[in-house]
Amino acid sequence: MPESAAQRDAFIDLGARWFFWQREDWSALSRQGLGLTGGVYLPTGANDAKSDGMRIDDHAQLGRGSFGPYVGATYAYHRDPWNTSASATVTAHTTNSYDYHYGAGVQWSVREDYLAFPWLAFELGADGRYAMQDKIADEIQENTGGLVLAVAPGMAVNVAPNLWLRAHAEIPVYERLYGMQTLGVTMSTSVEMLVQ
Length: 196
Fold this sequence. Notes:
Elements: E1 12-25, E2 30-42, E3 50-51, E4 54-55, E5 68-79, E6 82-91, E7 100-101, E8 105-117, E9 120-131, E10 135-136, E11 139-140, E12 146-160, E13 163-177, E14 186-193
Antiparallel strand pairs: 1-2, 2-5, 3-4, 5-6, 6-8, 7-10, 8-9, 9-12, 10-11, 12-13, 13-14
């Protein structure tokens, strides 16, 4: 979701992906699948940081202090060394203990991966995010929410059987944010376990 450049989120994402439709084409050495995703962001980062005795703004806290359940859909097409994927996810948030409620949002992504070696892949994606404005109680927070479109280069390293370490950046190319906000390059890392 659109945030100030000072935001540094710390959370654990527990999620699963289930491909309910899959098709393999042995003549083209390709496979594709359509699936559902679901999970929840856990409020693991501290949400009570203070400066000069006063609690700092929610968007400057390390964590959000709330749960973030999400659902979505994903499509993948694999024909090594090239792999294409697309996804869309809707996320909601619970209200944290300071009565702050992050706005619900939708995220979408299209990615192309290139498997350079069996243990190393490079990726380039186009990401989009739209978030509704946050609230404190029923009061809308003016400088929150909006639309961001970004390019997203990244890479993945196979660190163990069926275990990949991923890192990618989001570089904004278009922003339509509510109120006065700034948004810079966002970096993220994740660990992905493949269960077949």
